[in-house]
């Protein structure tokens, strides 16, 4: 297997096509990338901005260049010596009538050949949550009408732009020509294509469509007839607000527009992977990224099948969020994850853990936020189980009650089982277990046992009989007649705990608990007890053992903010008193802009704290004084504010928008950017300067560490420059690639303020380090990891480690905790004083080369940092 030496993630769509990506190949090669890493390229819904809403997994999307453009790009990459990794989406497809599989299911129900392709509960009709109000009100308003879909060759119910096909058997009794009724009576899913073609031909005849539509318009006014036809369909129209309680299909998280796919079924796997496997087998694609693997029924079985099909030489990584101390299952035949846990590891190196306690106190003092993170997470999970994910929780409860109904009459009550189930869901410390149809292996059984123990030891535990009952059901320790239901219960619980955890932590608590936004990242740990540099080194040693070839990310299309914004926010941990004083001043300056609504101030103190941190993180470098913000900055920032307020689910929500509150907070946020708010602007820009400079140096450190630590460094599009983006969709904007290309042409390493604040220096470090990686692939791919100790006054300010393979080694030096630099001071030369890094005996007396500055260095017993880091705050020192 060829392990990438580095990857470059490109988001197709939003202006990025295969032709544009092909034109980037010389730039990527010069940057030192080994593999282009593509977002989903399969045909998605019209206007898709991300490609995860696939409608045809066996077609390359014409909107971005089609099969021809894709093959041209792949051939050009390979001709340039670069590889190609593509993102595949086995968990879900778009629940859209553009999707021919889904359309067939809508039209034919259980008769459709695709009815079991999607994870649909066919004990009821397929729900379509597209209505803007309850069905009876929609009918009363006259918003549902019979209509001909001439393009599809079908009779439909029209709801605004939605044309929902009727089952052909229900055409009978409608005022239609005999020719249509006869064809409909003979129609079957097997001859559906012919049936619809014949109708298209019929509708194309002169005058037919107009006369038919006139008759149908007249019929649409008959509400009794309309309701009678609706009742006969395999689908049921649903008010969109009722989806969390009424949906009949598994979805991606709480996105009703993405329906769960049953790839555990061999036929579904075959039909949804034909093109994927063809691209791999024809050597056009060298690697695969599996999206949301925890959503699958049986991830291990899926990966085993995929590996069998693509062979041992295809590089595979999976999107999998690891909790603290969790590892990728050792029996998964993949190289690792997409690298969220690497971001979390970096916080240990760059956050001042001593400042977190003081920041906690400041946060509580300013915001009156007394709820700790774990209690808040519990509340968020309770809220989601009761509302956003209620249908999934209720389906689980119904399965449990089905089994309970076959047990003794003196068993636990329905309420007791419901309470125990909720506590089990809340107690999960990781995304999920990986039980199979046959039960749990030892590792997953141990995890499950720990969940049950933690529930049993709650201050107010549920009914022990109910807990014991659910324990037996999950284990499959039920009568034979109930084993199939128990297996379904286990599968659905495993597919629910992941979305519940993600929505509660990443999409709720990370917008409620705003102490230090830089820690609120996908897979992040906001309250770890063992933060610190030693912990970082330990995590890298573990990474060598568990997934040395997994991706190492710092920015992705799903991160909450760009890597350089996060690096800047880490500096707040070094100066909690400075930060608290600043927030107090800013709140005082802007207090007249707070609006007092019936439900409280807008914004409240907690939201103000969040707004100021978000603004600090996103503020463009180089604008500390006087310069105007980019013209699009206000719109981007206000978009973030809206999303943050709704994701917090406190005073507004996506499903229940509080317009007065949102408007007041947005107006407050808008005022922060106004030149008319000169008192705030002057204070903010002056206060921001040391945070900006500390963040830039943190950014250089995290960049070099990512490029040289265990794992495959992943560069997200544009983040080779400075990335201060906000949460999606902001982080999916097209980067300024022409500007980055021009900057890369600079051959001499620039060690000045302009290069630092423009991102040129960061990009140069990336290019020189990646070039070294490609030329010394084995060392940084397979070499071990050894922390190096420092002594002297600045010892706590340096991150130092060694990678070694045989006689070859490379030493990495990078600064940390540099907030209190003087104006225009760099963590170079005199900054280090007598600080030195101690070298292992085997490395002493060697002639070494600084890969970035390309100068020679003699290694004695130790490295005096004042001499080594004299011009640049980071160094990559190689003995070859």
Task: List the keywords.
33 helices, eight-stranded parallel sheet, 880 residues, alpha/beta, globular, single chain
Structure description:
By secondary structure, the chain is α/β, with parallel strands linked by helices. 44% of the residues lie in helices and 14% in strands. It has 33 helices and 29 strands. The strands form 8 sheets. An 8-stranded parallel β-sheet has the order 16-15-14-5-2-1-20-17. A 6-stranded antiparallel β-sheet has the order 21-23-24-29-26-27. It has a 3-stranded antiparallel β-sheet with strand order 6-13-12, with no helix packed on it. Strand 14, helix 13 and strand 15 form a beta-alpha-beta unit. Helix 14 packs antiparallel against helix 22, helix 18 packs across helix 19 and helix 18 packs across helix 20. The longest helix is centred in the C-terminal third of the chain and has 31 residues. The model has no long low-confidence stretch (mean pLDDT 95).
Distance between the termini: 25 Å
Q: Quote the beta fraction.
A: 5-15%
Write down the overall geometry. Answer: globular
Query: Strand tally, please?
Result: 29
Number of helices: 33
For the biggest β-sheet, the strand order reads 16-15-14-5-2-1-20-17
Range of helix content: 40-55%
Query: Structural class from helices and strands?
Result: alpha/beta
What's the gyration radius in Å? 29 Å
**Average pLDDT figure:** 95
**Uncertain runs with pLDDT below 50, 5 residues or more?**
none
The main β sheet shows up as: 8 strands, parallel
């Amino acid at each position: 297997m060829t392990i990438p030496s580095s990857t470059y993630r490109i988001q197709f769509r939003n202006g990025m096509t295969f032709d544009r990506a092909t034109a980037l190949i010389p730039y990527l090669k010069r940057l030192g990338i080994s593999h282009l890493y593509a977002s989903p390229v399969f045909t998605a819904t019209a206007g898709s901005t991300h490609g995860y809403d696939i409608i045809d997994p066996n077609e390359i999307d014409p909107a971005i260049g089609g099969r021809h453009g894709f093959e041209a790009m792949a051939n050009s990459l390979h001709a340039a010596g670069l590889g190609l990794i593509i993102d595949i989406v086995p968990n879900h497809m778009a629940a859209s009538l553009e999707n021919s599989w889904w359309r067939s299911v809508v039209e034919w129900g259980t008769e459709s050949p695709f009815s079991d392709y999607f994870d649909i509960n066919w004990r009821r009709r397929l729900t379509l949550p597209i209505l803007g109000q309850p069905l009876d009100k929609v009918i009363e308003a006259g918003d549902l009408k019979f209509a001909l879909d001439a393009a599809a060759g079908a009779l439909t119910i029209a709801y605004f732009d939605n044309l929902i096909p009727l089952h052909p058997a229900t055409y009978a009794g409608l005022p239609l020509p005999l020719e249509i009724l006869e064809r409909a009576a003979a129609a079957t899913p097997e001859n559906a294509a012919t049936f619809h073609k014949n109708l298209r031909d019929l509708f194309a005849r002169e005058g037919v469509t107009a006369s038919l539509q006139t008759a149908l318009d007249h019929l649409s006014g008959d509400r009794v007839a309309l309701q009678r036809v609706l009742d006969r369909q395999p689908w049921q129209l649903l008010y969109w607000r009722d989806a969390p309680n009424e949906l009949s299909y598994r979805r991606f998280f709480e996105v009703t527009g993405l329906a769960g796919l049953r790839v555990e079924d061999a036929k579904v796997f075959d039909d949804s992977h034909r093109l994927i496997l063809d691209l791999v087998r024809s050597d056009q694609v060298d690697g695969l990224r599996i999206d949301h693997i925890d959503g699958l029924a049986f991830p291990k079985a899926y990966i085993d099948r995929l590996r069998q099909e693509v062979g041992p030489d295809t590089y595979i990584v999976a999107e999998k969020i690891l909790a603290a101390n969790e590892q990728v299952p050792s029996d998964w035949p993949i190289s690792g994850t997409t690298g969220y846990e690497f971001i979390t590891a970096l916080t240990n190196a760059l956050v001042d853990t001593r400042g977190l306690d003081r920041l906690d106190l400041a946060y509580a003092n300013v915001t009156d936020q007394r709820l700790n993170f774990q209690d808040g997470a519990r509340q968020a999970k309770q809220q989601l189980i009761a509302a956003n994910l209620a249908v999934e929780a209720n389906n689980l409860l119904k399965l449990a009650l089905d089994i309970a109904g076959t047990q003794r009459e003196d068993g636990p009550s329905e309420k007791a089982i419901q309470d125990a189930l909720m506590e089990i869901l809340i107690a999960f410390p990781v995304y999920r277990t990986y039980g199979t149809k046959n039960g749990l292996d030892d590792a997953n059984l141990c995890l499950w046992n720990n969940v049950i123990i933690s529930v049993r030891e709650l201050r107010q535990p549920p009914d022990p009989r109910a807990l014991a009952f659910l324990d037996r059901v999950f284990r499959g320790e039920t009568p034979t007649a109930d084993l199939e239901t128990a297996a379904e219960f286990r599968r659905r619980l495993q597919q629910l705990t992941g979305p519940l955890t993600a929505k509660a932590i990443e999409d709720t608590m990370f917008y409620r608990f705003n102490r230090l936004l830089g820690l609120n990242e996908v897979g992040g740990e906001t309250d770890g007890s063992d933060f610190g540099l030693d912990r970082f080194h330990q995590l890298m040693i573990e990474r060598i053992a568990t997934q040395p070839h997994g991706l190492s990310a710092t920015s992705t299309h799903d991160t909450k903010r760009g890597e350089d914004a996060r690096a800047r926010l880490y500096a707040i941990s070094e100066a909690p008193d400075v930060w608290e004083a600043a927030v107090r001043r800013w709140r005082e300056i802007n207090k007249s802009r707070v609006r007092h609504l019936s439900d409280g101030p807008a914004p409240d103190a907690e939201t103000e704290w969040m707004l100021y941190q978000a603004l600090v993180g996103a503020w463009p470098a180089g604008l500390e004084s006087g310069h105007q913000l980019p013209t699009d900055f206000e719109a981007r920032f206000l978009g973030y504010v809206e999303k943050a307020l709704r994701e917090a689910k406190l005073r507004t929500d996506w499903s229940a928008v509080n317009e007065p509150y949102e408007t007041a907070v947005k107006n407050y946020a808008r005022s922060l950017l106004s030149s008319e708010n000169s008192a705030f602007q002057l204070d903010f820009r002056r206060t921001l300067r040391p945070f900006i400079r500390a963040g830039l140096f943190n950014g250089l450190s995290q960049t070099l560490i990512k490029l040289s630590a265990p794992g495959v460094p992943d560069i997200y599009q544009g983040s080779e420059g400075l990335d201060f983006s906000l949460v999606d969709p902001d982080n999916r904007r097209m980067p300024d690639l022409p500007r980055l290309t021009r900057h890369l042409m600079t051959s001499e390493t620039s060690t000045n303020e302009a290069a630092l604040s423009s991102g040129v220096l960061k990009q140069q470090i990336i290019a020189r380090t990646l070039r070294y990686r490609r030329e010394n692939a084995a060392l940084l791919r397979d070499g071990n990891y050894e922390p190096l100790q420092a002594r002297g006054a600045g010892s706590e300010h340096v991150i130092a480690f060694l990678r070694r393979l045989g006689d070859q080694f490379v030493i990495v030096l990078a600064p940390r905790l540099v907030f209190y630099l003087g104006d225009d001071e760099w963590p170079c030369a005199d900054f280090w004083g007598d600080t030195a890094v101690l070298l292992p005996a085997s490395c002493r007396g060697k002639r070494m080369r600084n890969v970035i500055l390309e100068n020679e260095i003699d290694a004695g017993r130790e490295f005096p940092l004042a001499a080594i880091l004299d011009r640049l705050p980071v160094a990559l020192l190689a003995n070859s």
